[in-house]
Amino acid sequence: MRYTNCFIPTLKETPSDAEVVSHQLMLRAGMIRKLAAGIYNYLPLGLRSIRKVETIVREEMDRAGAIELLMPSVQPAELWQESTRWEQYGKELLRFKDRKDAEFCLGPTHEEVVTDIVRREVKSYRQMPFNLYQIQTKFRDEIRPRFGLMRGREFIMKDAYSFDVDSSASDLSYDKMYQAYRRIFQRCGLRFRAVEADTGSIGGSSSHEFMVLADSGEDAIVSCTQCEYAANVEKAEARPAPAEHAEPRPLEKVETPAKRSVEEVTAFLGIPSSALVKTLLVVADGTPVAALVRGDHDLNEIKLKHLLGCETLEMANEEMVTRVTGAPVGFAGPVGLNIKIVADLAVQGMKNFVTGANAGDLHLKNVTIGRDVTPTQYADIRNVVHGDPCPRCEAGHLELWRGIEVGHVFKLGTKYSEALRATYLDADGKEQTIFMGCYGIGISRTVAACIEQNHDADGIIFPIPIAPFHCIVSAVNTKDAEVMAACESLYRDLGAAGVEVLFDDRDERPGIKFKDADLIGIPLRLVVGSKNLADGKMELKTRRTGEVELLPLADAVEKIRSIVAEALGR
């Protein structure tokens, strides 16, 4: 592609409404333009990168045995009502009526539609297993769309759905997709982790998120330094703490005037935060429950909600705290409480700790589990912290990262097939429910996440596999016939060698060309100028490292071809 024939409207200044790096750079590099809140036009460079991701996804999905189809983005309300998600999904589901007053929605996902297809066509166990996938535009009416393609309302997504005769067979399909996802993100040139995750609104028995590591990531994740264990902080497991062997001391009341927070109480008493136990009052489906966690730990509400099996879980308000404990907020404690008490595993076996006394301006010292308070239940209900021992291996500890979710795989089980009555006849002629899996990748989001991970002060640093072009050829002086002839030869020969080339043939100053090349993130830049050309050479700059080397004109094409081939695994 010649620069003068391409549409690349770069910007010198960062738009004021662009908050994160990927949004800023995609606008400045002329990759996207905003049409409405959370809705973007994909301009040529942005679309080229998106298509690269799509190609990798298609190749790996096909390799894993999945079959591509395409389902409508407009979906009838009846299907969503059958699954009960019409009422449950919330305002993110954009609903509308046609001229006949029939209700529809713009699909944020396609579980209902694909299950409807299968229930109409699959009758026998002999027709399974199979996996159907599509790459489709989705719409989710986010209350606050932001961050460009990171959290838009309209987005491009690959979603796949597996169909199996039972749970064991479904596990095999899940593993195929898990391995395919690892290959996809490796081929995209991204640093990522596959982490255990909560199933969220999709439902199902278990799931993994694929997280691109980036300092700007919205999600906190952990991974082990020694083994492959990784999990979203919402899901990450904490290993139980060893029991204390100290002798219990007599229970003692101490005055703590106006000292409510962990920091205030521990500083006042001169103790570490790990020697205090917080009593957190929550309301589970309308019923108060006390959760005990160490002062240096935070309650994980998602873990607690799953443990209690409740529909709603929220922190108790001041009125509820006072009614249950008889004390103002900041002085609650487990001793003498007559409600269900769930204690974190790290609290189990603790002795001589400090906690609230259920009276204003008072705390208790030397509280001991089993003597002064006996929790109803012990469970892992806290967030893990950096340095925690790995729950899966003996040698490693947990490290904290920031991540951007770009893929998610779910074991759905029979959630949707039961609701929509998708069944089959087994070998004995008995009707059975189909087992399903669901597997999504945010195609457009992957490009944005790539930029969040790969950039510097000058612009984007694309990995070769998903860069809009592999190489840019820059003519220093377009009025020099020999320079232009050499550039034309390179442009032609590189293209013939399978290298995607952008030829910057603009009549602009070299500085402008070089700044634009860095901004749009083309991995390799060949600079042809009259001075080096007189010696039969040209300059090769690698965008990621900034390394510059002089290449003989005769060697340039093979050098670039080999670099690209290695990056693409050819």
In short:
By secondary structure, the chain is an alpha+beta fold. The chain is 27% helix and 29% strand. InterPro entries: aa-tRNA-synt_IIb, aa-tRNA-synth_II, aa-tRNA-synth_II/BPL/LPL, Anticodon-bd, Anticodon-bd_dom_sf, Pro-tRNA-ligase_IIa, Pro-tRNA-synth_IIa_bac-type, Pro-tRNA-Synthase_IIa_type1.
Report on this model:
It is a single chain. The model has no long low-confidence stretch (mean pLDDT 94). 42% of the residues are buried. The chain has 3 domains: 16-237 and 400-452, Bira Bifunctional Protein, Domain 2 (BirA Bifunctional Protein, domain 2, 2-Layer Sandwich); 252-379, YbaK/aminoacyl-tRNA synthetase-associated domain (YbaK protein, Alpha-Beta Complex); 469-567, 3-Layer(aba) Sandwich (Rossmann fold), CATH 3.40.50.800. It is globular. The two termini are 23 Å apart. By secondary structure, the chain is of the alpha+beta class. The chain is built from 15 helices and 31 strands. The longest helix is centred in the first third of the chain and has 21 residues, at 167-187. The strands form 8 sheets. Strands 3, 7, 8, 9, 10, 11, 12, 21 and 24 form a 9-stranded mixed sheet that branches. A 5-stranded mixed sheet has the order 16-14-15-17-20. A 5-stranded mixed sheet has the order 28-27-29-30-31, with helices on both faces. Helix 2 (44-63) packs antiparallel against helix 6 (167-187) and helix 2 (44-63) packs across helix 11 (443-453). Strand 25 (455-456) and strand 26 (459-460) form a beta hairpin. Homodimer. It is an enzyme of class 6 (ligase). It is found in: Cytoplasm. GO terms for molecular function: aminoacyl-tRNA deacylase activity; ATP binding; proline-tRNA ligase activity. Its EC number is 6.1.1.15.
